[in-house]
Design goal:
The radius of gyration is 15 Å and the shape is globular. By secondary structure, it is α+β, with helices and mostly antiparallel strands. It starts with 7 loop residues before the first strand and ends in a 12-residue tail after the last helix. It is built from two helices and five strands; from the N terminus they run E-E-E-H-E-E-H. Strands 4-3-2-1-5 form a five-stranded antiparallel β-sheet, with helices on one face.
């Protein structure tokens, strides 16, 4: 689909991660042998960072700034695109179709994504992406 492009922030509407925000890393419009439907490879936030105030110390801020990511292949029908986009210079090489074949590759990809998300959160960019949906 023309609006589900790489870098687009979307919200998952169904399943275990329903209501979670994700960023599209790779879009497959036609499907392939393992997933014979239009889908997207996404990286999202399973556990959002907590609220931080000025009175908190450095260690407390560091602990509350942690992000737990996930990677998943999701059908287009379960994604709701938003108006937001995100630059993916750190994520493109980390996640691909072959990442899901082996558990160790998957863990390495999650670590890379975690670092990229935490850097982005601490720099103050894409603040909306790091706040949980309230519904």
């Amino acid at each position: 689909m023309k609006f589900l492009k790489v870098g687009r922030v979307a919200i998952i509407t169904q399943g275990r991660y329903a209501g979670r925000k994700v960023v599209i890393v790779q879009a497959v419009d036609t499907g392939n042998k393992t997933h014979p439907f239009p889908h997207a490879l996404v990286a999202g936030i399973e556990r959002y960072p907590l609220k931080i105030t000025r009175s908190m110390g450095k260690t407390r801020v560091a602990k509350r700034s942690k992000v737990k990511p996930f990677i998943k292949v999701i059908n287009y029908t379960h994604l709701m695109p938003t108006r937001y986009t995100m630059e993916l210079e750190g994520l493109k090489g980390a996640v691909s179709g072959e990442t899901f074949k082996e558990q160790s590759q998957r863990e390495d990809a999650k670590k890379t994504i975690k670092k990229a998300f935490e850097d982005r959160f601490s720099s103050g960019k894409n603040r909306w992406f790091f706040t949980p949906l309230r519904f």
